[in-house]
Amino acid sequence: MYNNQEIAFKIKQSAKSKKVTVKQLLEKCNLNINYISQFANGKDMTAGNLYKIADLLDVSVDYLLGRSDAPASSAISDKQATEFSAEDAEILALIKKLPLKKRVKFISSLYDELDEP
């Protein structure tokens, strides 16, 4: 399972590396100034809020969750870009057209499907 304190630490470190304060980050996300502290102390974070934070920090949600060591979010290497089929690009374009809330819900459902046996 995920460790809230480790995720909160990664959020703070990512903000620091982007030269933005946690307060500024939370203001841009329209979140309470104590949101990260409350999360570190056991309060749940919605997928939507995690996605907003990752997006503003330009890191992946997987990085914040500790599922990846690479902080890069949407940056795709030249090699990866050439590995995308036309169908992959079309699917990605459709996902990007979704409003943020629906995009988060869709991506969360994909993770749920991957976690099922």
In short:
By secondary structure, this protein is mainly α. It has helices spanning 4-17, 22-28, 35-40, 47-57, 61-65, 78-83, 86-97, 100-115.
Description:
- By secondary structure, this protein is mainly α.
- Helices cover 66% and strands 0% of the residues.
- The chain is built from 8 helices and no strands.
- The protein has helices at residues 4-17, 22-28, 35-40, 47-57, 61-65, 78-83, 86-97, 100-115.
- The longest helix has 16 residues, at 100-115.
- It is globular and about 40 Å long.
- The mean pLDDT is 84.
Radius of gyration: 15 Å
Q: Residue ranges: pLDDT <50 for 5 or more in a row?
A: none
Mean pLDDT across all amino acids: 84
Structural class determined from secondary elements: mainly alpha
Distance between the termini: 17 Å
Strand content is under 5%
Topology of this structure?
Layout: H1 4-17, H2 22-28, H3 35-40, H4 47-57, H5 61-65, H6 78-83, H7 86-97, H8 100-115
Spell out the key features of this protein.
117 residues, 8 helices, globular, mainly alpha
